[in-house]
Amino acid sequence: MNHLAALVLIGVTTMDWAVLGACFALAAAVLIFIFYIQPDASDLAPHRTKLDQLLERRDSIYDNLRDLRFEFRSGKYSEGDFEAMKVSLETEAALLLAEIDQATESQVRRPRGPRPATAARGPQ
What we know:
Helices cover 73% and strands 0% of the residues. The radius of gyration is 34 Å and the shape is elongated. It is an all-alpha fold. The chain folds into 2 domains: 3-35; 48-107.
């Protein structure tokens, strides 16, 4: 009796072999995906810092102020509404700029003390 006939007698059919082969192929693909594929460079990029977030928010506020002025000039808002929204955005911008100043001061430590003699003389 040949080998294939013996397997058919114990209940292993061609369909079972196809399913078993598909399972092995799927397992191999999963292992290759997990262990072989390298992460993209963007995955390794550093996340945004607090300063980046603040600068992005500042730009957003400036855009909102610009849009508010345009919409006021086009007649969408009354003068009272425009002034109220403008003051609110300007106040938020001022607080944000102070926060940006704090963040940049904590990142850049300026040396304090006397300047070198060459810098005090100025250009020659």
